[in-house]
Every structure is written in C-alpha cells, then in structure tokens.
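Lab notebook, design round three. We kept the backbone fixed and only want residue identities now. Task for the bench partner: fill in a sequence for the structure below.
Input structure tokens:
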C-alpha cells in the first residue's frame, strides 16, 4: 500500500485502509474502488491523506497506533467522560484508569513497531481523537524512559484527562486547566501525578506558560512528557498552523523549534527517538536523486528507514538508510 495526498487520488484507486471518523464510525471501507463521487466525499471530510493499494508495495504494512478493540473502547470511554464533565456529572475514574492500563499493555508489547500518529481520520470529535493520540504518544515515550508499569498507567491516565476541561473545539481557553483540575481533584481514585497534568499542561519549560508560570523541573515530569505529545498532535492536525495538517516530520520541526523554550529538551530527545517520522508507505526523494517508498522502519532511528526505490516502470531495489549512511531523505512527497 501507498500513502497518497487526496489531491492525487484518481477514479479506480482502491482504498487500502478504511476511512473512519474520530469517533470510530467507518465512512469508507478498505477495498472500495474510488469514483469521482467517493473522491469528493473524501475531500469534504477534511482528510488530507489516505492509503491506497499498489501491487509494487503490497507487502508494506500499515502500523496501527493501537489495536482496534482498545481503540474503540478508548473512544467510548473518553467520549462519555468528556460528556459527563460538561453536564456537571461525576467522572468514573476507574473506567479511565482501566483503558489507560490497556493502552500501556498494548504499547509494552508493540514497542518495537514504533509509533506514528497520522491523523487519517475525519475529525468529528476533536477532544476524543486528541486525548487518545496524546495518551498513545506519551505511553511510547514513557516506555522508552523505562517508567515502570504503574508509572506508565498514571502517565497515560494523565494524558487521557489532560484536556477534559476544554470545550470540544480547537480554541483552548486558559480557564480549561483549572476547570479540568477541579473535576479531577474530586476523583479519589486518581493519582495526583495524573490529575496535576490537567493543571500544568500549559506551563512552559522556560516559565512563560500558564497558570503559575513555573519552569524547568518544577513542572512535573509527566506533564513535561505530555506537553511534547500534546503540541505534536496539535501540529499534526494543523491546530497551531492555520488548519493545515502536517506530516510527522514537519510537525517534528515545530517540536524542535520549541525545544528549550516551551518544551524540555531532554524529553524532546526522547520523543525524537520514539516516533516514526517517515511512516511506511510514504513517498520520498533521496539525496542521490532516486524516488522511493518507505517500506520498513529502523526503530530508534526514525530518520533512517528502509526505502524501496523505483523509476516510472520498475522497482530498482531497496536501500536501508541505516546501513547506507551516505544517502538520506531529502524530501517527502505529500500530495
Ligand atoms: Fe490544553
Ligand atoms: Fe491538549
């Protein structure tokens, strides 16, 4: 399969991965042959890239960020929790902790696959998708930082609830940090390590954030981890960037730019080694001028995946960028 920008979709292309909404509803199934009207429909969903079938790359795997059962459960739990908070109802923290545990278990098993959040969904419920994405990214980072199981569960719980005080829109009002924390403080079953993230997640490493303008390690370690995942997910969706969704390597450029000011540089380094910059299926141009498709990852070295190079008619071979250090990725074809 191959990742393509929707502007290059043509009638006859076959969808390789279903298109869903962020609340879990499948809009178009895998295997569907696209027509002009399907392509129009995809355009209207505000998705900018999809996976299509391509026989030259039929062995290329799409690496899911979470298994479907856990993902569907997480969607339901976060949706209910957010709705309850906004109706002034009590929160069932035990259900949230249970789904956090499931995410941790998945990530501990899947750590060798690397993580790539691609925002392939149509966003109909921003908070749900955002909370789950941040939780998955934080889990992979915490795992790399060798947090133990209980620490990972508290970290992921903090990520799931970090924006619960927020309205379901891209605008973040400063009051959402206090509002979220006030709700979480009443939940006796939540660790303070998790709930403090609601209050602190807009503090900046250099002290320029809110609400208390604390800086450096005065901000809890969990919050400093979640802050990186939080910003990255916002950039992927274009929420800090004129609504233009970004590819992972582009979003990471912004993360690098914020390292040392908004973000803890040590955590940014962990993040750099954890995420997949060039997801399987993305088309790249190499520094030797050849065009290729990313077919496999070298986990821990996200800048150097394995690339299958091809010309107009033929596959020419594969280059493992980890073994061929004189060649690098020069460009990513997005549309
Ligand atoms: Fe927030
Ligand atoms: Fe957030």
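Proposed sequence:
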């Amino acid at each position: 399969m191959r990742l393509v920008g929707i502007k290059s979709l043509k009638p006859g292309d076959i969808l390789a991965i279903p298109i869903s909404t962020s609340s879990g509803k499948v809009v178009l199934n895998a295997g569907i042959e696209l027509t002009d009207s399907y392509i129009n429909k995809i355009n209207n969903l505000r998705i900018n890239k999809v996976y299509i079938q391509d026989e030259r790359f039929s062995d290329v795997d799409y690496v899911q960020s979470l298994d479907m059962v856990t993902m569907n459960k997480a969607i339901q739990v976060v949706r209910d929790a957010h709705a309850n908070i906004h109706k002034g109802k009590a929160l069932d923290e035990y259900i949230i902790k249970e789904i956090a545990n499931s995410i941790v278990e998945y990530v501990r098993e899947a750590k060798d696959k690397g993580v790539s959040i691609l925002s392939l969904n149509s966003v109909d419920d921003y908070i749900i998708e955002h909370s789950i994405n941040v939780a998955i990214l934080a889990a992979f980072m915490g795992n790399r930082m060798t947090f133990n199981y209980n620490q990972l569960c508290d970290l992921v719980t903090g990520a799931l609830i970090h924006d619960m005080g927020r309205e379901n829109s891209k605008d973040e009002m400063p009051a959402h940090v206090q509002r979220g924390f006030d709700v979480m403080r009443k939940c006796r079953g939540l660790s303070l390590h998790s709930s403090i993230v609601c209050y602190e997640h807009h503090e900046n490493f250099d002290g320029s954030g809110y609400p208390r303008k604390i800086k450096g390690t005065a901000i809890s370690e969990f919050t400093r981890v979640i802050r990186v995942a939080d910003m990255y997910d916002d950039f992927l969706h274009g929420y800090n960037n004129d609504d233009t969704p970004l590819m992972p390597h582009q979003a990471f450029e912004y993360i690098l730019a914020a390292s040392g000011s908004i973000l803890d540089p040590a955590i940014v380094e962990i993040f750099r080694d954890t995420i997949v910059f060039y997801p399987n299926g993305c088309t790249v141009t190499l520094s030797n001028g050849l065009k290729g498709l990313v077919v496999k990852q070298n986990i821990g070295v996200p800048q150097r995946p394995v690339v299958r190079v091809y010309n107009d008619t033929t596959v020419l071979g594969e280059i493992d960028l980890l073994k061929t250090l004189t060649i690098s990725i020069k460009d990513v074809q997005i549309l």
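Keep this in mind before ordering anything: Residues 130, 162-163, 230 surround fe (ii) ion (ligand 2) (CB under 6 Å).
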